[in-house]
Amino acid sequence: MTTFIGARLVVDEGVVDDHALVIRDGLIEAIIPANAVAAGDEVHDLTGYTIVPGLIDLHVHGGGGYSFDDPDPAAHQQVIDFHARHGVTTMQASLVSALPADLDRQLDALALSTGDALHGVHLEGPYLAVSQCGAHNPAALRPPTPDEADRLLGRNGLITMVTVAPELPGVPEFTRRLTSAGVVVAAGHSEARAPELNAAVDNGLTHLTHLWSCQSALVREGPWRLPGLIEESLASTHLVGEIIADGHHLPATLIEIARRCLGDRLVAVSDATAGAGMPEGFRYRLGVIDCEVASGVGMVVGANAFGGSTTPLDGMLAHLHQALGWPLPEAVAATSTRPARVLNLADRKGRLTPGHDADLAVLSPDLTVGATMRAGRWIHNALG
Ligand SMILES: [Zn+2]
C-alpha cells in the first residue's frame, strides 16, 4: 500500500486539500482525510504538488523525435515514453493516410506495441476528402469499401478509431460495420454538409476530429447560408469534438465557442508529432509530407500550413488553465475524464476515485509533470 499526502487532488469537479490518496495493487483504494493516515503505511509527502488522473490522449502521431508510423516497436516505445514524461498514461497511435501496403506494415508493427499505455490505433485516413487533406498525402486518399472494413476488424481490436469524410461513397455502410464492432468513427478532413454527416451519425458516428482543422465551413449559395462541418459540429447535441489546444492551432475565441457549444463533450488532443519536444528546425515526416518545428508548432515544409502540433497534452492542460482561465478540474476533464469516456474506459480510468486504475500525473505548481504513475507503478519520476 502506498499513500500520498500533502498534494492537492483534483477529484471530479473539485480540488481537494488535506486529503491522502491511497494506492493498493495498482488501484486507487481510497481518498481519506489526511489525519486518518495510519502510521506505518508507505507514506510519501507531495506537498506543493497537484495529483490529477493520468492524461489520456486520443490523437498522437509521435513525440520526442519518433513516430508511430515507423514500423518499429522500439520507436513506438520511445513515443510512449516521451508522452509518459508528460503525464500521459493512455494514448491512441494516430496514423496519417498511407497507401495500403505501407498501412499494413505500420499496423503489423503497432500490433506488437499495443497494451495498457497504447490503447489502440486511430486511422486518421485514408478515407478523407482530397480538398481537406491538410498534411495527408492526397495520393493515398480513397473511399472506404466493405472489404476494407472487414480487414480492419480482422485485426482483432487493434483499430480503435477511424476518421472519415462522411461525404465519400460507402461511408454509411463502413461506419455501421465499424461502430457495430465497437470502433469509434469520427468525422474529419471533410467537406460534409448536414445530410452526409447525419447519414454517418445514423450509422453510429460519434466523434469529430480536430474542430476547425480541415473541416468545411459556412458557404453562401444565392441568398442561402449552408452550414459546413464545423457549424454542424458545434450545433450537434451528442457528438464529441476535439480541439488542438496548443495556443497555435486555435485562437482563444474559437476554443471558447467550442467550449460553450459542446460543454462536457469537448476533449483536448495533442495531435503531437515526432517534432514534439524537439528543437526549432527539427525535421520530421507526417507520412510522406516533410514538416519542421517552427515557432513552437509543426509546419509543412514549403507550405504555409500546420503539420500537427509539437505540444504534448500536459502543455494543453496548462494552456487551458493558465492562458484561457479554465478551472483546473475542467481542464483535467478535457484531457483525462472525457477522453476515457470516448475510449469506453470510464469505468476504470480518467478520475481519481476508489476502484479506478492508479494512473496519476503529479503536477508541479507551474503544471509541468513531475511524475507519472500507471497501474500503481512509476513510469516517469523526476521528483527526486
Ligand atoms: Zn492528426
From TrEMBL:
Amidohydrolase-related domain ranges (all copies): 50-378
Active site location: 271 (proton donor/acceptor)
GO molecular function: metal ion binding; N-acetylglucosamine-6-phosphate deacetylase activity
Example GO biological process: N-acetylglucosamine catabolic process
Stored Gene3D superfamilies: Metal-dependent hydrolases (3.20.20.140), Urease, subunit C, domain 1 (2.30.40.10)
Pfam (any one): Amidohydro_1
Residues at which Zn(2+) binds: 124, 189, 210
Tagged with keyword Hydrolase: yes
Cofactor: how bound: Binds 1 divalent metal cation per subunit.
Superkingdom assignment: Bacteria
Keywords: Carbohydrate metabolism, Hydrolase, Metal-binding
Cofactors that this protein relies on: a divalent metal cation
Recorded family membership: Belongs to the metallo-dependent hydrolases superfamily. NagA family.
Record-given protein name: N-acetylglucosamine-6-phosphate deacetylase
Organism expressing this protein natively: Kribbella antibiotica
